[in-house]
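Changelog-linked ticket: S-adenosylmethionine example.
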Amino acid sequence: MIDYDGEALDYDASRGGEPRAQATVEALDRLLPRGRCTVLDIACGTGIVTRRLLRPGRTVLGVDCSQGMLRLAARRVPGGVVQGDASGLPVASGSVDAVVIVWLLHLLLDPVPVLAEAARVLRPGGTLITTVDKDDAYFVPDSDIARVTAEARRQYAPRVPDHCARVLDWAARQGLVEAGETEFPGTGQGRSPRSWQEAIQAGRIPWAGPDRMTGVCDGLAALPDQDTARPDPLYRVLALKYFGEHTRRRDSPRPRSRPHDVSDPLPPGRA
Ligand SMILES: C[S@@+](CC[C@H](N)C(=O)[O-])C[C@H]1O[C@@H](n2cnc3c(N)ncnc32)[C@H](O)[C@@H]1O
């Protein structure tokens, strides 16, 4: 896991800045409930997205485990962020209308405790919205880097914690129903073949580990326009609707219920 405390000051600029945050919120808004509602932003980071979720009638709370990230978020959403672990949220059960999780699941060894917590805090009828397949976002259809990296990524995909099929499988067993899907662009984040090779050689790309590295790098080196950035990544976002405890399949474990550190975590009337 990245040291987000250390990364906090560089985070926004290195992840597409305000244009990326705006594109993210436009995508989330296509899936969020309309009108008065409470929204929990799990792993809110610097609050760059959280702040843009605020609307008249919508109460928004951000949760993150990193003090460094939260310090920045608290400036953007005063009184609207708390420190907490996504696998043990300081939020009452059945208390929010929607949960958003942007760019967290791919970082986890096991996404299930976090998804279970998200389901626990949702009201029946509530919506869980999460990014999935994050590391595959760069490989938009018809891109040449998608083609030369396809086999390495295909072999690696089943092990990815935010693999869409894996999230949907968990959701089905918990009684959550797929309710929509959209995507947002990582504005300015497209990479050139040369920058991919450098990242692979530096060991920063999990699907191109030592065993697959040579073949993938040879393929990338053979592409034309070595320093031309390819299309911006398109990040996939999934919405799941939670219909309550009774819809959970009998063979599935109940989500962990935890004591609530915060009895009424949402500041009233935040818009
Ligand atoms: C890639 S950043 C995403 C931030 C934000 N959602 C955004 O779109 O800008 C991942 C965030 O997840 C937080 N995080 C990682 N593990 C966490 C956990 N177990 N509980 C809460 N936050 C966590 C990190 O501190 C970091 O702020």
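Closing comment: Example verified and attached. The chain has a mean pLDDT of 89. Residues 4, 43-45, 48-49, 64-66, 69, 85-87, 102-104, 107 surround S-adenosylmethionine (CB under 6 Å).
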